[in-house]
From TrEMBL:
It comes from Trichocladium antarcticum. Belongs to the SGT1 family. This is SGS-domain-containing protein. Transmembrane segments: none annotated. Pfam families: CS, SGS.
Length: 476
């Protein structure tokens, strides 16, 4: 069984989630190992089996607490973090923040059964009252900020008090991960309407202990014994039969934010080829094809499952909208038909092509085949023809000519300074990208920022000062 467990964990690390689950199922028949439960929870979450993912995270928490081994606290920290990620995916944002905070408290060395009152932070309407600013400023208990670091020594030299410093616990990285994740959760929470159910608390610090429900299953494909001469072969699992994956599991993970002019929608999808993508905008829909589906590897261009239709939460100006694509996501910038209108939600995704409503023009994918993302500085094509505007006078500004009749709108946009940019960057990043950002920014003393974890995880990010500035090492 140990071999199955190790192979299952390795498959999760390699992101082969479909192969990991039967291996971990077999391993967990004889042992409730918290490490295996957490790995299976992660696999279920990526395959959009959210109930199963939550079940495994909660069972891992209880099993780790009962065992009381050397790894128990770390596994409990991880279990609370996993709960937070799952609740966020389910749009239960208040519950997600509570679990992230409990993960931080465990990393600080606080008692697991302490009544910390995190879930009691609600207003008179029963909505969660913790704000984004509260979360960002919640660093008092950060472990490892003791008087042995330079800032602590400087505080002592200057006569400051060290009473607020905290000792190292061994879980500093876990605390930082949960702290950064909270900023993303609370950043989303502040954008949702006041009556959104995700603002309500329905979670408890110690979850009800779920029952072990995994039934005995036939052995997965035999795992070959390792040999000195044989190279490691990937675990092969048969692809799902066409049409066997429910539509709900095919849907993409989506995030969005908005300002007075645009709604920006991020669709998290891997390996979409920019040169093949066809994106068509209409007033109430966006149609995208072809999309690879991680949970259904049989999907090919032209299949129904390769197309997504986004039914939007408001009306847009198709000619003023644009898109861009990277290896990990597709980003849509939707120009609002009514500037200043606040969308309650970005909309919803339907698998396959959806007929346009009566009286609307259907998206033309053939015409959109050659669509390229519009430069961020350029005025949207056709916008001047559809709405009157003042003359654009010559200017040396990097943003190009200005329409002085719209100066008020531009001044509003100027309020979104570099801090706003970094907040949005964190908000749209994956936990792996956030770790890369934290590591690169900290090690380089704020001179470098990377979102590529594979690039920075095994090296120290060197400080690269701006031209004309000499970097000097500070010693107390």
């Amino acid at each position: 069984m140990t071999t199955y467990g190790h192979k299952g964990v390795e498959a999760v690390q390699n992101r082969d989630y479909a192969a990991a689950i039967p291996l971990l199922d077999k391993a967990l028949e004889s042992s409730n190992s918290p490490a295996w439960l957490l790995a299976r929870s992660q696999a279920h979450k990526h395959l959009k089996n959210y109930d199963a993912a939550l079940h495994d995270a909660e069972l891992a928490y209880h099993t780790a607490a009962e065992r009381g081994s050397g790894n128990s606290r770390k596994q409990m920290i991880e279990a609370q973090y996993r709960r937070s990620v799952i609740y966020h995916t389910l749009r239960r944002y208040a519950d997600a923040d509570c679990c992230a905070k409990w993960s931080m408290l465990l990393a600080e060395g606080r008692p697991a059964r302490e009544d910390d009152g995190v879930e009691k932070n609600v207003d008179q309407d029963g909505n969660y009252s913790v704000t984004y600013e509260d979360g960002v400023g919640d660093t008092k208990g950060q472990p490892g900020q003791g008087a042995d670091d330079k800032m602590g020594m400087l505080s002592g030299i200057m006569g400051g008090s060290s009473s607020s410093t905290t000792a190292k616990t061994g879980f500093e990285a876990d605390w930082k991960r949960a702290y950064i994740w909270r900023s993303q959760v609370l950043g989303v929470l502040k954008t949702v309407p006041e009556d959104h159910p995700g603002r309500k608390i329905s979670v408890t610090k110690i979850p009800p202990k779920p029952q072990k429900t995994v039934a005995k299953k036939p052995d997965p494909k035999p795992v070959p014994a390792p040999s000195d001469n044989a190279s490691k072969q990937p675990i092969e699992t048969p692809a799902p039969a066409p049409g066997s994956v429910p539509d709900e599991q095919l849907k993409l993970r989506v995030d969005f934010y908005q300002n007075n002019q645009d709604v920006t929608v991020s669709l998290f999808v891997k390996d979409a080829k920019k040169e093949d993508l066809q994106v068509a905008f209409s007033k109430h829909q966006v149609q995208i094809s072809p999309l690879p589906r991680a949970t259904a590897s049989y999907v090919k261009a032209g299949d129904r499952e390769a197309t997504s239709t986004l039914l939007l939460g408001g009306e847009i100006n198709p000619s003023g909208s644009r898109w861009s694509a990277t290896p990990r996501k597709i980003e849509l910038v939707l120009r609002k038909a009514s500037p200043g209108a606040k969308w309650a939600t970005w909309g919803k995704e339907e698998i396959g092509a959806v007929a346009a409503e009566a009286g609307q023009e259907a998206p033309d994918l053939s015409a959109a085949a050659s669509t390229e993302p519009m430069p961020a500085q350029a005025a949207p094509a056709g916008l001047a023809a559809s709405s009157p505007s003042g003359p654009a006078y010559p200017t040396s500004s990097k943003t190009g000519p200005k329409d002085w009749e719209k100066l008020a709108d531009e001044e509003e946009d100027d309020k979104q300074d570099v801090n706003f940019f970094f907040k949005q960057l964190y908000k749209g990043a994956t936990p792996e990208q956030q770790r890369a950002m934290m590591k690169s920014f900290t090690e380089s003393n704020g001179t470098s920022l990377s979102t590529d974890w594979e690039d920075v995880k095994a090296r120290k990010v060197e400080m690269i000062p701006p031209d004309g500035v000499e970097a000097k090492k500070w010693d107390p």
